[in-house]
Write a structure and sequence with these properties.
By secondary structure, this protein is an all-beta fold. It has no helices and ten strands. The protein is elongated and about 75 Å long.
Length: about 280
């Protein structure tokens, strides 16, 4: 039976329990329920500062208050062009940008503003994903960026001298993960495991030191493992469950002997015998 994609009313006889399963249908260009506003983790800048109350970070403070004097809107001088941008600190595939206009006055100033995305701080190099074409006091503008990728999202008023005031900017999308780089906020599952190794050099080189969360590369500081000269030398961690392993990050020692790790193989398997694990 095909999935129903329109509101449906279920009429059934009295029952002890009814369970309904499916996936939400998200209207085009509307942030999904519980989507994370990426802008709040960023750093905002703008072409100029009108006053202390109009600092650029006020447009990403999580407050949608549209009254400028209540201190939650950004504000530039009359610039040509006036611009505001947020550095998201990583590259994202941007799906939606939501702009909240001021509601006390001057809503028309946002007319013609362009929402842009790019990987450079230079807003003139950003790619336009939408334009604000109509305003009213307190207007909310949802702009579809259709997966444009960039670290910066900007709002620019082109081809005229104008103030730029933004009472909130929300940015939604997904992190662009470079090949074999752990996802943002990924959990290091090694820390929940149990470590072993082929032999013990000394108590300072305990196998558990490689999963203690301490990346200190000085052996004498007690956060590195160390075996004897074994054939082969090996270290392993038991994750206590089966995982689809996407990335393994290994930190070498920094005080000496970094060449010892040359040629080391990273292997994964369901058997304790490291010789039977897959490289």
């Amino acid at each position: 039976m095909s999935a129903l994609s329109y509101p449906t009313e279920l009429i059934i006889c009295p029952s002890v329990e009814v369970e309904v399963y499916g996936e939400a249908i998200t209207p085009e260009c509307k942030p999904e329920p519980n989507a994370i506003n990426l802008a709040t983790q960023g750093i905002a800048e703008q072409s100029s500062h009108y006053a202390r109350k109009g600092e650029p970070n006020l447009a990403i403070d999580g407050k949608r208050n549209g009254t400028y004097n209540e201190g939650s809107c950004s504000h530039t001088e009359i610039d040509y062009p006036a611009w505001w941008r947020v550095n998201l600190k990583a590259t994202y595939s941007i799906s939606t940008v939501v702009i909240y206009n001021r509601q006390d006055c001057c809503d028309h100033r946002l007319m013609g503003a362009e929402i842009r995305v790019g990987d450079s701080p230079d807003v003139s190099t950003h790619i336009k994903c939408g334009t604000i074409e109509g305003t009213y006091p307190g207007s909310i503008h949802t702009i579809c960026c259709h997966g444009l990728k960039g670290q910066f999202v900007s709002v620019v008023i082109p081809d005229q001298s104008q103030y730029l005031t933004l009472c909130e900017v929300e940015v939604y999308g997904e992190a662009v993960i470079p090949e074999c780089k752990p996802a943002l906020n990924a959990i290091n599952i090694a820390k929940q495991g149990t470590a072993d190794q082929s032999s013990y050099y000394s108590y300072l080189g305990s196998p558990s030191h490689a999963i203690d969360g301490n990346r200190n590369g000085i052996f004498g500081k007690g956060s590195c493992t160390h075996t004897q000269k074994d054939t082969p030398s090996w270290w392993r961690v038991n994750l206590k469950a089966t995982y689809a392993v996407s990335a393994v990050v290994v930190y070498n020692r920094e005080d000496c002997c970094d060449n010892i790790l040359m040629g080391a193989e990273i292997r994964v398997g369901d058997l304790r015998d490291v010789s039977k694990q897959v490289k």
